[in-house]
Every structure is written in C-alpha cells, then in structure tokens.
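Let us work through a complete example step by step.
Step 1: write down the sequence.
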Amino acid sequence: MGSGGLGLDYWLQWQVLVSALIILLPTLTSIRFIITKHNNTPANNHHHHLWMPYWRNLHPVCLLLYRLFAFVSMTYFLYLTVIGLGPFVFFFYTQWTFLLVTIYFALATIISARGCWMLFNEHSHPIPNHERDKFLKKDSSSVEDTTVKDNEVSIKPQMQFNQESGFWGNLMQNIYHTCAGAVVLTDIVFWGLLLPFQTGDDFKLTLLIGCMHSLNAVFLLIDSALNSLQFSWHGLTYFVLWSATYITFQWVMHACCLTWWPYPFLELATPWAPMWYFGIALFHLPCYGLYLLIVKAKTSMFPRSFIRVVANEKQM
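Step 2: predict the structure and record it as tokens.
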C-alpha cells in the first residue's frame, strides 16, 4: 500500500476504460429502473409487512427480540474486527456488507418495536366511559350512537395496519434486498474462491474471520424465514448499485493513495481485467436469484394454515 496512489499511465490503459463501461452500464440501467418504477408504480407495500412474522403462531415480539439479538451480536463482532484489525478492514467488501446487514437489523428492530407498540395499543384500547354510560341507560338512540363509535374505535387501529410503509419502511426493504444479494456474493467468493487459494503466512483463517464471512448470511436467512417482507427481482437494482459504489470507492482510493488491491480480481493492470469485471457483474444474477429461490421456497413449501393473515390484501 503506497501513499501516492496509482499514476496516470495506469488509468489510461484500454482495459480500464472497458472495465469502467462494464460497471457503468448496469449502474445506469439500475438507476433508470428505480426512477421509472418510483414514478409509475403506486406504492403497494404495507407497514405490517415490516414487523409482522410470517408464521401464524409466532408473536411479533419474538421477531423483535430476534432482530435485537442479531443487531447486538453483529455490532459486537464488528467491534472486535475493528479493534483487532483496525479501520483498514473497511477497505473490504465483506465489512461493507457486514455493516449494512447490521444497519438493517438496527432499523428493523426500531420498526418492529413501533409495530409491537401499535399492536399493544390496539388490544388495550379502552372504551370511553361516556359510551359505557350511554349503553347502561338502554336508550335506543344512545345504543346506536355507541355502536357507531365502537366501530370507529376498532377501525382506527386497523387503519394503522393498512398504512403504507413510508420512507423508513421502504428504506428498510431496500436495504434488505441489497443485503440479500451481498451476503451470498461475499460468502461464496470468500469460501469458494479466495480461501482455497490463500497461501503463506500473511493469511490465517481465524474464528473471527470465519464468523464475519458466515454470520451475515445466517442472521439474514433466519430473519427471512421469520418475516413477511416482500421479495422480488426489482431489488436486484439496489444490489447492483451497492457493488458499483464499492468498486467506485476502490478506484477513487487507488487514484488517491492506494496501490494494493484488497481483491486480486479488481486489479486493472492486466488484459484479463475486463473479463474479471464482466464475470463479477454477471455473478450478481445467480447470487440474488439464489436468495430469491430460498424466500420463494418458504412461501411454497408450507400450507396456508401456518401463515399469518393480517388483513385482506384486497382491502389494503
């Protein structure tokens, strides 16, 4: 690792331009898709999907406690990594993804806590004393008025379940989609590509490194098994933007102060660089598709009797 970065001659090589186009084209396509979808597609995600468990007999508090446990655990492992290896670890895609999953669980914990609070208020909503007095008087007009107001009391909390996700809810789901592909990419590349070819004394697989390259996927998969979040191919766009941001970060850092690449397949001083970058871009499809298949398997392998039905989706 140097202090002056890579020289101008390095960035004027033909393979740098080709590799840049390979990254730029899917990035622009993803941005265009997000803008088009935002302008032309009405919001159909609802707040209860964010914190209601997928399973009928699982209370939302259980999902809340799990998310809190995952957030605390990942924060602790991230702390150990930074203390042990220094802030330089954030030059690696693994730590970027691990931090993003941690942020997801932090946001999911807050939203789950709010959802449980809404659910508690619904179940404990008292009937006003004046309505009870009217009922005890057995006045027909008063009874009719009480019925109307009782309906208002029951409908009002239900409207909280039918509200759309809002900014923070959409942000949580977009981070969820990004994490889904990123954890698969991180763990497959590390365990299947990097680790088998690591030799010498400069690398040693430790328990902490193993946890950093496995707990991210384990925690997120368990959350996916429990939650009711929507999952579709459109989330691939956020995954692509996340990886493009990391590569841009690496290029900027190497133009300014670095000469050592954290991953050998990011090296641009080789005629094989465009092939490596094209392979990386293409590999995003099976990584995200694999996670999508796992989520789809959850919805198709179990009968409807196990699934929680919060509200009639046609009315929402």
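Step 3: interpret the result. Residues 8-119+169-315 form one domain.
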